[in-house]
Structure prediction request, 169 residues.
Amino acid sequence: MKNRHLAYMASIVLAAVLFSCQEQTQQSQEEVVTEMESKSDTAEYFLLRPDVEKAYGYSHAVKIGNSIKVSGAVSMDDAGAPMAIGDIEKQMKNCYTDLRKILEHYGCTFDDVVVENIFTTDMAAFLEVAAYRGEIYTNHFPTGTWLGVKELALPEFLIEIELEVHKAD
Prediction:
């Protein structure tokens, strides 16, 4: 009887210890998740050309957690005036130059791009110069869509490129 009583008491103590450990572990996990959620839910906005972007009412990029959304880049100078008018290849290169600046701001490269959407008012001309993308994406191409559109924000723009990026921890 005495041994049975000791075994019973030991099992109660063990159960209490295990319950306490489980409760502390659960609290720690909840604290970590809450901390991660608060960090990942905070949006970090980036303006490449603040005056232009404020005038038109958009941010060039926003990062939430490991995800970065990049608004469509077009061939424009710092005042917002179209550049390389009539030259889709030069406009495309100007877009990638701006996109590279945005990626670098977040510590990323084109290797981190997971989606690339290209909008063009002249698909035939774009297809003639699209091979340039192989100089940008040297390891792999992202997913994406190429769309022929009637017009972009200004009639001089022939191409617009938007990105989605995943920044690994």
